Amino acid sequence: MTMTGPGAGRSLAGGGRQKAHEAQTAAERKEALLALDSEGDLRKFGEQLAKQGFTVVRRFLEELRQVLREFTDEDADEAALLIERVRKALPDPGKISPSWQDLWREFEGIVRYKSSLLREIPASDRDGEWQVLIDNPYSHEHIAVYPGLSFLEAAYMYAYFRTDLEKNEYIRLQKVETVIWHTGEDPSST
Length: 190
Description:
190 residues; mainly alpha; 2 domains; three-stranded antiparallel β-sheet; 8 helices
């Protein structure tokens, strides 16, 4: 880590230092947050972040979501720690936007379910095309299928949807072995 100590994250969310915040990369913000370990520093970080308003918080949360999309086996513990720290820093994001009321539950679920997939599926079996399928056999709604994904994309999608799975729904993560694909404009389809 390049930034350490209790003051490392102050420019990350320092009130009145919005340009410094925006100039930092997502990786620098992540490292700064991971460097904060006291409850007081985390709380101060969250207060200063919230003071900068909805747009800055939204960008920060988008960066966190990107971390969740991209983390691999080696990063799983760090992703869990990051969500734990940011939850302490900003315990009630729903006060900033009602759509974020259950955000930490969602993020924690994504880390939990994606980490489980990373443990269950060996790296040697992750190449190729993957898809995620969601269905409720007791509903008249259509099956949702997300095809053409890499393993990491599919693992994130699986974890994202698994977090809010309803009682009668099921979700499948599938590796595609054979694909035959045509479009309506294909000369061979007429």
